[in-house]
Amino acid sequence: MELNTLRQKVALIALALSATATLALPTSVAAAESINMIAIDGYPDRSMWVREFSGFFIPRVNEELEKSGNYEISWQEAYGGQIVKPRGVLEGIKLGLGDIGIVTTIFHNSKLPSQGISAVTPFIASDANVVATAVDEIAREFPQMAKELDAENQVYLATAVVLDTYQLFSTTPISSLDDLKGQKVAGAGYNLRYLEGIEGAAGVRGGLPNFYNMLQTGLVDAAMLWPEAARTFKIAEVAPYMLKVDLGAVNSKTVTVNKDIWEGLPDEVKSVLQAVAIEYRDHVASVAMDTAVESIEAYTAEGGEVIELSAEARAAWANSMPNIAKDWAEKLDQTGAPGSDMLRAYIGKLKAAGFTPVRDWAAEL
Prior knowledge:
The chain has about 375 residues and is an alpha/beta fold. The protein contains twelve helices and eleven strands.
């Protein structure tokens, strides 16, 4: 679609929603300065992180701004392809098609390489809260993540971990690494590299909204995703077997703001957005953990079967892989970024939180 056409579409959506919002505004806040913001994501609003952005982040921002009464935000929300597709959020915010949004970072390993820090360190932590906090601390202790987003005309607010851990959902039972031989497995971003040490297994790039069809049509035999997503997207219908392998939680979402918009915002509004982004980070991680068990229960209730991979097989899988964390760190080092230091610091945070790596990726630096 042409950029001008996209801009016209955004303008029409914003105009319609803004008119509705204006009619609904109470007279008590008429003195507040109104700021228009378009929130975007390419995923549909049934996706947990989008639902919580709309139902938690936006109301909390409004609530905090109401305390002083100086400013209010008139929100226009456009999800599920109204403005951009899932892979288009980064570009959409860069171009100003959206003012704030949730970038799915695993789609942009070349532009946002440092965002891959948890994806390249599997088999350590299956806890969304711990991983979210650790990644966000790394982002604030090292400037690399913010620099990468700055190059995309965006300001980093906070990371988000929307999954407790990646598991493997398949059309036929898998209970060992031998069962993965000859299997085609859907994934996204770095997690496709998890398969490199397993003879005969092949990764097929895809996205969450496409996994159902990929499994149903036989394009793939299995997919790497998490239980809440499997429940939301009815994966049990096409992949009735879940291999509980606990590959780990991954930061796959980042809340960003268009840099031009950011620079024009009052300091009070900036502070509120930054503070609520941290709340959103913690809230989404908690929702991910709270829904994990019930999502597996729902999966089995819908006909799914859970098979647990042994500790020995998990260790064999981890040790079969190339050290993708080392590769990741050294590539960043070569650009002048502190990749190795970031990796050591990150794994140190996970260890301090009580997690023992099945494989200590940083020990091989």
